[in-house]
């Protein structure tokens, strides 16, 4: 049997630097940082007191209050991004067979805030069990896909993928494969996270994973800089509408790009540290390029995992150099986490959106906050420091790596007209 | 309207997002006010919290309308 082709026909984004795709993309290209002091809770006693929060959002502008209060913020973000993507895709009345439409979403944690609130409430009430009946349905990670499927009446496959910071990429890969196999025609995919909470920040602080540059939040996320000191926690998400190519063509849909590659690998090494030789990163890049059936030399842009941690950043670059060889310096590489912070399970979604927009506009968003070169990083690599670069982008690759050693990558291609 | 009835009405308006005028004595939480079974459980919990009492499950099952809630609370709130 031959596989079906899969294209992107709609996008929605809710990010620390923009609450819709066009604002997000404009700020990515302009190099705007989304980091600022934490407002979600009193972070005074925390080692890290800043994060990349979603800003200026009144949930009730998007979701009626009575519905919103039954959703954890990560689900609210999923709903808002999905609504934008569905509107963008412009499905006319009766153009979707709802039984062949799915929702495959990614979230690394799920309803952390809900869990925290309920347990704190339990402790504050003398440990007498008076849990809210909405506690479990709000907290469980699959609630985002459930709520979105109910909202749009999609009755095909709906579930959540969980692979820490690779979650949304795994969601895109599953959606891609089910459409290729003919099991769905349309899928709302992507991912969201809302972990800027006491437990989220405290937990990552305990791992010594977060930047503690409290005197300068906006320069704290500095992937590939010599003085990087950890990642900046972000929140939000993005929705990507994947659609079978003939289905999209038949309804005259606007097509952003084609999804042509999906790769996965595991480090099988350590629960949080990356493999010292970047083995998992190398394998996932090799797998994704091979799955696309292209030559490595055809890759124009890599949106890296690049979280701004001392260990992770150079290993990914080593894997890129090792795999691409002489082509590596010709690739534009950037970590947009320098602007958005790290959205964990939502990262793969907003970064896929960045790759798709890079193809659309033929411009590569920068890695901002580059001040001092890291001597362990090959200066010949083009890390797109500080300023966006115009260039031909036919193929864009997005890498995501998650705690647990999960690696997932995807490739998008400019569709020839 | 009693003070208890007024507080019950406010809780229902707040939790179910309905208009005050809809919250009549006869209004049934599920049939008239758009609540599902989980909303009803949450309402009972809110009454317990607001009036600082515990409503046993077998009693809670009999509270389906605004009037039934007010009657139960007027009888049991000390």
From TrEMBL, chain A:
Keywords (A to Z) from UniProt: Acyltransferase, Fatty acid biosynthesis, Fatty acid metabolism, Lipid biosynthesis, Lipid metabolism, Transferase
Chain ranges of the Ketosynthase family 3 (KS3) domain? 3-414
EC number, as in UniProt = 2.3.1.179
Q: Origin, by domain of life?
A: Bacteria
Q: In which pathway does it act?
A: Lipid metabolism; fatty acid biosynthesis
A Gene Ontology biological process in which this protein takes part is: fatty acid biosynthetic process
Q: Which residues form the active site?
A: 165 (for beta-ketoacyl synthase activity)
Q: Which InterPro entries match?
A: 3-oxoacyl-ACP_synth-2 (IPR017568), Beta-ketoacyl_synthase (IPR000794), Ketoacyl_synth_AS (IPR018201), Ketoacyl_synth_C (IPR014031), Ketoacyl_synth_N (IPR014030), PKS_Beta-ketoAc_synthase_dom (IPR020841), Thiolase-like (IPR016039)
One MF term in GO for this entry? 3-oxoacyl-[acyl-carrier-protein] synthase activity
Give the residue range of the signal peptide: none
Return the GO cellular component terms, semicolon-separated: cytosol
**Record's catalysed reaction(s):** (9Z)-hexadecenoyl-[ACP] + malonyl-[ACP] + H(+) = 3-oxo-(11Z)-octadecenoyl-[ACP] + holo-[ACP] + CO2; a fatty acyl-[ACP] + malonyl-[ACP] + H(+) = a 3-oxoacyl-[ACP] + holo-[ACP] + CO2
Quote any Pfam family the record assigns: Ketoacyl-synt_C
Give a yes or no for keyword Transferase in this entry: yes
What is the documented function of this protein?
A: Involved in the type II fatty acid elongation cycle. Catalyzes the elongation of a wide range of acyl-ACP by the addition of two carbons from malonyl-ACP to an acyl acceptor. Can efficiently catalyze the conversion of palmitoleoyl-ACP (cis-hexadec-9-enoyl-ACP) to cis-vaccenoyl-ACP (cis-octadec-11-enoyl-ACP), an essential step in the thermal regulation of fatty acid composition.
Instruction: List the NCBIfam families.
Output: fabF, PRK07314.1
Q: Which PANTHER family match?
A: 3-OXOACYL-[ACYL-CARRIER-PROTEIN] SYNTHASE, MITOCHONDRIAL, POLYKETIDE SYNTHASE-RELATED
Family note: Belongs to the thiolase-like superfamily. Beta-ketoacyl-ACP synthases family.
Protein name, entry field: 3-oxoacyl-[acyl-carrier-protein] synthase 2
Automatic annotation (TrEMBL), chain B:
Record localization: Cytoplasm
Q: Does the keyword Ubl conjugation apply?
A: no
Task: Give GO MF terms, alphabetically.
Answer: acyl binding; acyl carrier activity
In its record, the post-translational modification comment is: 4'-phosphopantetheine is transferred from CoA to a specific serine of apo-ACP by AcpS. This modification is essential for activity because fatty acids are bound in thioester linkage to the sulfhydryl of the prosthetic group. 4'-phosphopantetheine is transferred from CoA to a specific serine of apo-ACP by acpS.
GO annotations of cellular component type: cytosol; membrane
Can you supply a Gene Ontology BP term from the record? lipid A biosynthetic process
**What InterPro entries does the annotation carry?**
ACP (IPR003231), ACP-like_sf (IPR036736), PP-bd_ACP (IPR009081), Ppantetheine_attach_site (IPR006162)
Annotated Carrier domain residues:
2-77
Q: Copy the pathway line from the protein's UniProt record.
A: Lipid metabolism; fatty acid biosynthesis
Question: Where are its TM segments located?
Answer: none
For the modification O-(pantetheine 4'-phosphoryl)serine, the affected residues are 37
**Which NCBIfam families does the record cross-reference, listed alphabetically?**
acyl_carrier, PRK00982.1-2, PRK00982.1-3, PRK00982.1-4, PRK00982.1-5
* Assigned protein family: Belongs to the acyl carrier protein (ACP) family.
Q: What protein does this entry describe?
A: Acyl carrier protein
**Source organism:** Dyadobacter jejuensis
């Amino acid at each position: 049997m031959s596989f079906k082709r899969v294209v992107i026909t709609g996008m929605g984004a809710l990010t620390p630097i923009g609450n819709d795709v066009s604002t997000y993309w404009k700020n990515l290209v302009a190099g705007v940082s989304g980091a600022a002091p934490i407002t979600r809770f009193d972070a005074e006693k925390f080692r890290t007191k800043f994060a990349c929060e979603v800003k200026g959002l009144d949930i009730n502008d998007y979701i009626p209050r009575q519905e919103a209060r039954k959703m954890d913020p990560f689900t609210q973000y999923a709903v808002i991004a999905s609504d934008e993507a569905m509107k963008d895709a412009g499905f006319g009345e009766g153009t979707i067979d709802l039984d062949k439409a799915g929702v495959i979403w990614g979230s690394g944690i799920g309803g952390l805030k809900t869990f925290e609130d309920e347990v704190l409430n339990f402790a504050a009430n003398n440990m007498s069990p008076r849990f809210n009946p909405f506690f479990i349905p709000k907290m469980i990670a699959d609630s985002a896909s459930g709520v979105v499927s109910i909202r749009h009446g999609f009755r095909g496959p709906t579930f959540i993928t969980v692979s820490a910071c690779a979650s949304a990429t795994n969601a895109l890969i599953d959606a891609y494969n089910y459409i290729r196999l003919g099991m769905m025609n349309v899928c709302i995919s992507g991912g969201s996270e809302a972990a800027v909470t006491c437990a989220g920040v405290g937990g990552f602080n305990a791992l010594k994973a977060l930047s503690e540059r409290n005197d300068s939040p906006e320069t704290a996320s500095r992937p590939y800089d010599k003085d990087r000191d950890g990642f900046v926690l972000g929140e939000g998400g993005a929705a990507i509408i994947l659609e079978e190519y003939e289905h999209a063509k038949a309804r005259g849909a606007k097509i952003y790009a084609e999804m042509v590659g999906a790769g996965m690998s595991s480090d099988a090494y350590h629960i949080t540290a990356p493999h010292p030789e970047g083995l998992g990163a190398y394998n996932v890049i090799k797998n994704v390029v091979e799955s696309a059936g292209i030559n490595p030399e055809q890759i124009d842009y890599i949106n890296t995992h690049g979280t701004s941690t001392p260990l992770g950043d150079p290993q990914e670059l080593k894997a890129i150099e090792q795999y691409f060889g002489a082509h590596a310096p010709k690739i534009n590489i950037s970590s947009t986490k320098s602007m958005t912070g790290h959205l964990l399970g939502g990262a793969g979604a907003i970064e896929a959106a960045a790759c798709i927009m890079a193809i659309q506009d033929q411009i590569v968003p920068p890695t901002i906050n580059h001040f001092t070169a890291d001597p362990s990083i090959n200066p010949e690599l083009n890390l797109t420091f500080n300023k966006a670069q115009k260039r031909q982008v036919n193929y864009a690759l997005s890498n995501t790596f998650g705690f647990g050693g999960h690696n997932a990558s995807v490739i998008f291609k400019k569709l020839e007209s | 309207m009693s003070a208890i009835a007024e507080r019950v009405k406010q809780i229902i308006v707040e939790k179910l997002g309905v208009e005050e005028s809809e919250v009549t004595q006869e209004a049934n939480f599920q049939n008239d006010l758009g609540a599902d079974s989980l909303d009803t459980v949450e309402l009972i919990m809110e009454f317990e919290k607001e009036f600082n009492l515990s409503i046993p499950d077998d009693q809670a099952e009999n509270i389906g309308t605004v009037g039934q809630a007010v009657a139960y609370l007027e009888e049991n709130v000390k």
